[in-house]
Amino acid sequence: MTAQKVSKETAKRRTGDGRQPGDLNKEELLERMIRVDHAGEFGAVRIYEGQYAVLKNTDQAETIKHMMEQEVVHREKFEQLISERRVRPTILSPLWHVAGFALGAGTAMLGKEAAMACTEAVEEVIDEHYQQQIEMLGDDEKELKETIQKFRDEEIEHRDIAREKGASEAPGYELLTGAVKAGSKLAIWLSSRV
User: Fold this and answer.
1) Domain assignment of residue 182, given as a range
2) How many domains does the chain have?
3) What is the pLDDT along the chain (194 residues), one digit of tens a residue?
4) What is the 3-state secondary structure (H, E, C) of the chain?
5) Domain for residue 39, yes or no?
């Protein structure tokens, strides 16, 4: 192996390496990540608050409360990052405040299984979203990458809990989860930009 080849293989990968013309620079990429992740965690807390408001006197209450408490920790971390890195939060927060609660409460009113189908759908989208971010982050953003990986693991846990609690038994499961996934992807796209 030549010295040049060895140095390329052992060089640390940096956030933004491999950018193409027109791609976001590192600072823009990080701002979008933090903005959208903050918005997503804010929305997730509101979804669980809506579910809990409807299902607080059922056997699902403790499960929903556990997931909500983890989402609160995620939101607080991204609030900290928004402040530390001086990132502008999305201007859509008031919309996510109402829409998140409505989605959580609305699906819970359809039944425990529908609430879990909503959770499963949202968490599947977030799992994919966080994985994409992890792949974009380099060694120069090790702490942020580890934070996102930890949160992704917890989102996967939520998805798995929802499946165990009967998500697939929800009336109109395919239609419901398809709509929630489409809405989640749209919210991600909008929040990263607006």
Assistant:
1) 25-193
2) 1
3) 444 444 444 457 777 666 666 677 788 899 999 999 999 999 999 999 999 999 999 999 999 999 999 999 999 999 999 999 999 999 999 999 999 999 999 999 999 999 999 999 999 999 999 999 999 898 999 999 999 999 999 999 999 999 999 999 999 999 999 999 999 999 999 998 89
4) CCHHHHHHHHCCCCCCCCCCCCCCCHHHHHHHHHHHHHHHHHHHHHHHHHHHHHHCCCCCHHHHHHHHHHHHHHHHHHHHHHHHCCCCCCCCHHHHHHHHHHHHHHHHHCCHHHHHHHHHHHHHHHHHHHHHHHHHCCHHHHHHHHHHHHHHHHHHHHHHHHHHCCHHHCCCHHHHHHHHHHHHHHHHHHHHHC
5) yes
107 inside domain? yes
Type of residue at 188: I
